[in-house]
Amino acid sequence: MENQNFYAIGLMSGTSLDGLDICYVKFINRNSDWDFEILKCETIAYSVDWEDDLKNAIHFSSEKLLELNSEYGFYLGEKTQEFISKNNIRELDLISSHGHTVFHQPKNKFTLQIGDGRAIKIKTNKTVIYDFRSQDVLLGGNGAPLVPIGDELLFSEFDACLNLGGFSNISLKRDGKRIAFDICPLNIILNDLALKLGKKYDENGDFARSGNIDYELLNELDQLEFYQEKAPKSLGIEWVNAQILPLINDQKSEDLLATFTEHAAVQIAKIFEEFGIKNVLITGGGTYNSYLIEKIKAKTKTDIHIPTKETIEYKEALIFAFMGVLRSLNLHNILSSATGSLHDHSSGLVAD
Questions:
Q1: Strand, helix or coil at 254?
Q2: Which helix (H) or strand (E) element contains residue 64?
Q3: Shared domain check, 45 and 12
Q4: Residues 190-214: pLDDT tens digits?
Q5: CB distance 283 to 254 below 8 Å
Q6: What span, in angstroms and rounded, lies between the C-alpha atoms of 167 and 101?
Q7: Is residue 70 within 8 Å of 53, Cβ to Cβ?
Q8: Backbone angle region of 351, left / alpha / beta, with phi > 0 → left and psi within -120 to 50 → alpha
Q9: What CATH number is attached to the domain comprising 161?
Q10: DSSP of 302-327, one letter per residue?
Q11: In this structure, are 18 and 126 located in the same domain?
């Protein structure tokens, strides 16, 4: 392949409902060796109405969910077009949208990320690639994690890449193949507990630091069946509702935050040790939780690398932009070794 540049926008909305991440990236391909430069990025906080709709969509009727799928697609298109205009973006090959996950049940062969890409196309008049997970689920995969293709081609200098988002997930090389899996719920729980104390998130882990660990609860959490399963494996909100929430409803919020932060650190450090990870790149909103990072460091000898603010906050949006570029070239953008699907494949619906 000749040296080529590609310009793409990645859109990402995580389960922690921090907002819509928009990342404009230049990708450089030098004889199939990829590099990137983040040119512009922004997070748009959701209004109370949007946050409520996205959080409660799992309970909507089918008609209301279909309506929300269209409405959210137009919302994504409007915000992306505003971003393009504000930043005077002239070079743009495509927009790549993750959408917002409502359902994720790979064992039942379905997953749903709302935000119709055709609506984004109508608002921006640009090629849009979306719905990256469904094909993998139909191929017998978990439909997650998907970012390992970016870890493999853009961040190969690290033994592993750990994302601390709504869920913590990791990708790493083993026996010459990139594997990846979810480790445990994270901000989807921590943020919800912080809300009960009047904050959107536990800044620096200060609430958790002030609480007391409930070791009986910690043991219950650590013994959950998911943690005994082998990768590939993934988590969704349904699992959290069924397995986690019944355990943590009655205790003091600071103590719950202390306990769940300890739980996350235990599970993450366990994976570092199990796979002999020497160095790891950590990104995602949880990277700013200094108490969590302290806890992880105390439990492992792994060298922890924390990158620039842009990479911390926009790595997922960056990689979904990259996945869109790969899809446009009909190159594999999902690794079966990471998701458990039948084979590597090029996934994503195209609205052009």
A1: helix
A2: helix 62-86
A3: yes
A4: 999 999 999 999 999 999 999 999 9
A5: no
A6: 13
A7: no
A8: beta
A9: 3.30.420.40
A10: PEEE---HHHHHHHHHHHHHHHHHHH
A11: yes
In a domain? residue 98 = yes
Residues in the chain: 352
Pick from 73, 94, 41, 30: which is nearest to 322 by CA? Answer: 94
In a domain, 112, yes or no: yes
Angstrom distance (rounded) from CA 19 to CA 13: 6
Tell me: the pLDDT tens digits for 280-332?
Answer: 999 999 999 999 999 999 999 999 999 999 999 999 999 999 999 999 999 99
Does 294 lie in the same domain as 247? Answer: yes
What's the pTM? Answer: 0.87
Burial degree of 81 (CB within 10 A; 0-12, 13-18, 19+): middle
Q: Let me know if residue 340 belongs to a domain.
A: yes
Which domain, by its residues, includes 198?
148-310
Cβ atoms within 10 Å of 143's Cβ, excluding its own: 28
**Six-digit token pair at 304?**
């922890």
DSSP assignment, residue 345?
Answer: B
Q: Do residues 18 and 120 share a domain? A: yes
Asked if residues 350 and 37 have their Cβ atoms less than 8 Å apart, the reply is no
Number of domains in the chain: 2
